[in-house]
Amino acid sequence: MKRIRLLAAVVAVLALVAGACGDDDDSTTGDDAAGGDSAAGDLAGQSLNIGSANFPESVLLAEIYAGALEAQGAEVNVTPNIGSREVYFAAIENGEIDLLPEYTNSLLSFVLRQDDPNATPDATNVDEQVAALKDALPDNLTVLTPSSAEDKDVIVCNQDTIDQFGFSDLSGLAEASGDITLGGPPEFAERSPFGIPGLQQFYGAEFAEFVPLEIGPPIVDALNANAINCGNLFSTDAAISENDFTALEDDKNIVPAEAVLPLINADKATPEVTAVLDDVSAALDTEGLTALNAQVQAQGLAESEVAAQWLSDNGFTD
Amino acid sequence: MSTFGDTIGWLTTAENWWGPTGILQRIEEHLQYSLLAVGLAAIIALPVGLVIGHTGRFEHGALGLSGAARAIPTLGLLVLLGRWYPVQVGPVIIVLAVLAIPPILANTAAGISGVDPAVRDAAQGMGMTPTQVLTRVEVPLAAPLTLAGIRSALLQVIATATIAAFAGLGGLGRFIIDGFAVRDEARVYGGSIVVAVLALVGEGLFVLAQRSARPAGLRRRRAPSPAVTVPIPHTAGGVST
Amino acid sequence: MHVLAARPPSWSGFGIHGNWDVVWYYTVVHLRITALALALGAAVAFPLGLAGYRWRRTYPGILGVTNVLYTIPSLSLLVLLGLGFGLGLLNDRPLIVALAIYTLAILVRNLVEGLRGVPDSVKDAAAGVGYTPRRSLLAIELPLAVPAIMAGFRVAAVSTISLVSVGGVLGRGGLGFLFFEGFRRNRTSEIIAGIVASVLLAVVVDIALVLTRRVLTPWTPARAARR
Questions:
Q1: Which of C109, C110, C139, C189 is the most buried (most CB within 10 A)?
Q2: Residue C199 and residue B176: Cβ atoms within 8 Å?
Q3: Whole-number Å distance between alpha carbons of B219 and B222
Q4: pLDDT for the residue numbered C47
Q5: Is a pLDDT exceeding 60 seen at residue A64?
Q6: Residue C68 and residue B230: Cβ atoms within 8 Å?
């Protein structure tokens, strides 16, 4: 009996200790080793929870935002890899997250479809998109100045497929679609304009098969193994050139501009924060972003490392 | 909860059941993966379990190994194999078989070795050769426990076969993963309910099989207490991105 | 446990070299989730098991419910707990609760079977000597049931460790995070590191539990004699 009490007590103590140390929440307090040393910046006293989607570029951008803000004295918590937009948008909407890197068109389409599942954005250029976003977003959210850096969804095909069918744009793909196995993230099956229904609506494409795979290495592996003919990747993905994939041209321009911009909780968008993030957006461009992605994917470096280097090279940190 | 209503709605919409991406198709795929995996596991584990139980050798080694196999995260293994063999059924079957082997092996070995020595002696006394003792006495007596192991494995595998969807394949996991990706909770829960029902139906069928497998002579007695059959929890039932 | 107070270290490069701290960090997270899930599961299983033992008619019902809960696919349970029950998806609570629920099926069954396995003669003897049912339970029956309880606990622990990785789908899950990150970032060594660490953790915990059982029941021979 004594031993059982002892065991119960040990278990209870272990549980308490385990519960007390460490956090329930992933967003652990970013250690202010960096922020504490530099002079108390303009953002001293402000704190932000920064999240990202579950692909490397998003994590990279989140780390860049985080590093830039932290260098100015803010307290930041980074929660990367939250999931697809459906998941992380809910998180920023209810305040669990304050800041996310986003893309103009994808975000706009998503927000509009929250109210009307068939809505498509009318905006054709970045300015119109930003205006439409500010209008359509819930009151507690807003977007800041977009960057010139863009990352669009593209369909890429492996060399064997190009050799066999010879198309170079989406119209060509659509013509051959009956023989094509297409890979893309699960959401792709229901997305428009860039998705199965969208491609059908705008290009008349009807694919032989759709294989749900995450964007990135899973699609790259499948393309290389010829398990799929073509797949959805991001235009800034270094794997495209590395693997001799061909990115198909969107000849009907169904994919509008996708500029990178911060999505932020309106309360957290203080003038100081806005200034820092605007500077970051101005310093980013598509080529630079592609190069950063290459470092993460080809060299396997951690996003935080690559971000730190970029921040240093561009004068955001010392 | 209106989600509850939505889920019921999803389950009762006829369109969701038919077609190449319908519930029935996914059930078929799901069962294919599950049965192939358990079959493969049985082919490996039954003979090995028989040998271990009958000869009493390698007991610690083999059971220790199978215990360690239980610790392998099924999902992790699938992710690993999927890197080298993308979008193929093979990795899924192998990974699920790895999950199914430990219970079948442990139970078969325990069943054979648990046969009362007195019964074995009696059989030998009757003039049976060692092989006859094995096939006519030990195997039938061990059958209930062995079947319990296969049943446990099947339950596990059915619940875990949802991970096939993560490798880009089919099965009921598709509803869970795709539903989660577009935040269609009705689909996630609906798919899960189908998985659970399938698992329970499998359980039920097996209980019947177990009852009829008990040699007629023992049928009147109560079933042997499955002390060795501890349910093995599933390592990843339903995975998503 | 101050390890957990810092920001998670990031994996860098394609090999394991220089990334041991990442593996260690996620191993600690993994262990923490496991410990909390087991503690919670045990806390619920104990009264449930005692009830099932004391009031025999409730046992089939309790067992039935835990069995059904057990068949719910883990991701669905996570989504249900996180969104449906509002625990949130960005923390470890849904995972801990889900894992605790899965342990119930094993722990309750083993507790009851273990208690039932105590020979009637022993219980009668205890009653004869003057033990009240309650004292008998605490002083005689439970200690004798420890081997069965620990056997169940071992299986629960190993399987929980295995299951924690599912959280990787949501960007969490201890070592499971390494599977998914390795998968997405093209780093096979990261996936392997996660798997190996997970298996090692399970083996270590299993050994620890075996030793615990021996400490608790010195009267049990270390190896069961072959029948």
A1: C110
A2: no
A3: 7
A4: 92
A5: yes
A6: no
State pTM to two decimals.
Answer: 0.79
Asked whether the beta carbons of residue C216 and residue A3 sit closer than 8 angstroms, the reply is: yes
**Which residues in chain C touch residue B227, judged by CB atoms under 8 angstroms apart?**
113, 117, 148
Strands (E), chain A: 47-51, 75-79, 99-103, 141-143, 153-157, 181-184, 209-212, 230-234, 246-247, 260-265
pLDDT the model gives residue A16: 54
A81 — pLDDT class (breaks 50, 70, 90): confident
Kindly identify which residue of chain C lies nearest to residue B231, measuring between CA atoms. Answer: C106
* Alpha carbon B160 to chain centroid, angstroms: 9
Classified as helix, coil or strand, C145 is helix
Q: How far does B14 lie from chain C, in Å, by closest CA?
A: 23
CA distance A211 to chain B (A): 6
**Does the beta-carbon distance from A15 to C36 stay under 8 Å?**
yes
CA-nearest residue to A184 within chain B is B168
Task: Using a CB–CB cutoff of 8 Å, tell me whether C208 touches chain A.
Answer: no
Task: Determine whether the interchain pair C10/A303 forms a contact, defined as Cβ–Cβ distance below 8 Å.
Answer: yes
Tell if the CB–CB gap between B168 and A183 is shorter than 8 Å. yes
* Whole-Å CA distances, A25 to A62, A87, B61, C89, C177: 18, 16, 41, 10, 15
C132 touches chain A (CB under 8 A): no
Q: What is the pLDDT along chain B (241 residues), one digit of tens a residue?
A: 577 888 899 998 888 898 888 999 999 999 999 999 999 999 999 998 888 888 877 777 777 777 778 888 888 899 899 888 988 999 999 999 999 998 899 888 888 887 878 888 888 888 888 777 777 888 888 888 888 889 889 988 998 899 999 888 999 999 988 888 777 888 988 998 899 889 889 888 888 877 776 666 655 544 444 433 334 333 333 222 2
Flag if A190 and B83 touch (Cβ within 8 Å). Answer: no
Q: Which chains touch B (3 or more CB pairs under 8 A)?
A: A, C
Q: Which of B85, B87, B241 sits opposite A214 (nearest CB)?
A: B241
Quick one: residue B183, left, alpha or beta (phi over 0 = left, psi -120 to 50 = alpha)? Answer: left
Of B168, B182, B183, the CB nearest to A211: B168
CB count in 10 Å sphere of residue A171 = 17
Q: Cβ(C74)–Cβ(C98) under 8 Å?
A: yes
pLDDT band at A2 (very low <50, low <70, confident <90, very high): low
Q: Does C30 touch chain A (CB under 8 A)?
A: no
Say whether residue C17 is in contact with chain A using an 8 A CB cutoff: no
CB atoms within 10 A of CB B145: 24
Determine whether the interchain pair C199/B241 forms a contact, defined as Cβ–Cβ distance below 8 Å: no
Contact between B174 and A222 using a beta-carbon 8 Å cutoff: no
Peptide bond just before C9 cis, omega within 30 deg:
no
- Say yes or no: A197 contacts chain B, CB-CB below 8 A: no
A75 φ/ψ angles, rounded to the nearest 5 degrees:
-100, 120
- pLDDT for res A7: 55
Burial code (b: 16+ CB inside 10 Å, e: under 16) for B73-104 equals bbbbbbbbbbbebbbbbebbbbbbbbbbbbbb
C-alpha C176/C-alpha C182 separation (Å) is 10
pLDDT bin (cut points 50, 70, 90) of residue A23 is: very low
Instruction: Decide if the complex's ipTM is over 0.90.
Output: no
Profile chain C (227 residues) by mean pLDDT over runs of 10 residues.
61 83 92 95 92 88 86 81 75 90 89 86 87 83 85 88 84 85 84 92 89 80 48
Beta-carbon contacts of C157 under 8 Å, excluding residues fewer than 6 positions away, are C34, C38, C202, C205, C206, C209
Quick check: C2 and A22 in contact, CB under 8 A?
A: no
Query: What is the per-residue pLDDT for A3?
Result: 55
